[in-house]
Amino acid sequence: MEEVEVVVAHSERATLRVGDVFLKVDADQARVDVEVEAMSLAPVPTPRLLWRKPPVLAIAAVPGRTLGRLGGPSTGSPAAWAAAGAAVRKLHDAPPPPWPGRAGRSADALAAELDAACASLVADGLLPADLVTRNRRVAEPALRPWTPAFTHGDLQIAHVFLDGDEVTGVIDWSEAGRGDALYDLATFTLGHEEHLDDVLAGYGAAVDLDVIHAWWSLRSLLAVRWLTEHGFDPFAPGCEVDVLRSRM
User: Fold this and answer.
1) How far apart are CA 54 and CA 155, in angstroms?
2) For the segment 25-46, what is each residue's pLDDT rounded down to a tens digit?
3) Residue 35 near residue 152 (C-beta atoms within 8 A)
4) pLDDT tens-digit series, residues 131-161
């Protein structure tokens, strides 16, 4: 009998694995609609949709392995990281979908959200004021106009699978939509700065490194409270708080 593996579970959604099938349970069916539509539009390998019966979405496992995870050791050759960068570029060059994704918030809305998060982190003693203030300054270049691209919206390295130097699948598209391409690049290299040059070599386009650095700080500042409240540990070695400290 196949065992049931809990891949991730919190108050918003849960993902279970049974053999080669992933069962995603999500009460927000609009989010599932985005995931299904984005997988159908994306010009990169995505999981095969097996069936959908709300609130459950069943998808097939993709072959290969990831390059690592946030807070863990990175694996793969420079060529593998470059292949991932090339796949990201292919996604960003595709016609953007009509809906905004996580990476599609306006600069004004994002600035207001960031300022509220920073004030809360300091007021509640989650992070020291100097750490928050420094990273708020680093985050400023991300708050600028951007050309809409087809973005994944949660492109952490645990969501990109490769077999050798070939991308075999990109998973978890629920945050996809029209957005800032540099948000995806920053998310993919968060905590793995040493591989940024390899990723950009495969991406094949000039990018503003200050904006990548800004997104590392901005994304981490916004994530700390949510992660803490949903059973994750942003203070673990190599994770979000260490990313913020590295900007000091």
Assistant:
1) 25
2) 998 999 999 999 999 999 999 9
3) no
4) 999 999 999 999 999 999 999 999 999 999 9
Of the candidates 101, 106, 96, the one whose C-alpha atom is nearest the C-alpha of residue 33 is 101
Residue 245 host element (H or E) = helix 240-246
Contact (CB, 8 A) for 160 and 66: yes
Domain count, the chain: 1
In whole angstroms, give the CA distance from residue 48 to residue 60: 5
For residue 160, the domain's CATH number is 3.90.1200.10
Q: What is the mean pLDDT of the chain?
A: 95
This model's pTM is above 0.85: yes
Give per-residue pLDDT as tens, 72-89.
888 789 999 999 999 999
Domain range enclosing 113? 62-246
Q: Does any domain span residue 221?
A: yes
Residue 8: both structure tokens together: 């991730």
Residue 102 forms part of a structural domain: yes
